[in-house]
Amino acid sequence: xxxxxxxxxxxxNYMGFGSGVVIPEWGVSLQNRGYGFSLDPQHPNCVAxxxxxxxxxxxxxxxxxxQPVMSxxxxxxxxxxxxxxxxxxxxxxxxQNPQAACDAPRWRFEAGLDINVEDNxxxxxxxxxxxxxxxxxPLRDSYMDxxxxxxxxxxGDPAVEGYAAASxxxxxxxxxxx
Length: 178
Prior knowledge:
Elements: E1 22-23, E2 28-29, E3 60-64, E4 67-75, H1 79-93, H2 98-103, E5 107-111, E6 114-118, H3 123-131, E7 135-139, H4 142-145, E8 148-154, E9 163-167
Parallel strand pairs: 6-7
Antiparallel strand pairs: 1-2, 3-4, 4-8, 5-6, 8-9
């Protein structure tokens, strides 16, 4: 807002339609975020005291000098941390604006030396990765495979410079002023 207050959140049902249970009176689909957790004490993702089981609800928040700079998030399962890293590197290290960083082709670590790349990845980049020993697997459907981000970057004094916002073209969304 004009005073600089920012919030970051990610809405997620998980696994497409979540639990598959819809509350009839409301038409609300219940989430299924606990699917990846385990109660088996031998499982690495066991829920237990003083543990942080892996999960992928990770809305992002960027600060500089203790001040909020950007609320953001890239949704999409294990693509979330990878998408966060890729878009932040583009904005912070390469000076891209949030929409350019959001629009750019992404890659995704799959397993071992397998790396998925979006179909519009520069062939020279894919070849350079292959030259390093990676198995490059192009994916043509970026809807679910490469996440979707939303970014709101504070440009300075919010009452004067305002914000820059971006919405990922891979899914439905819009950056708008209210």
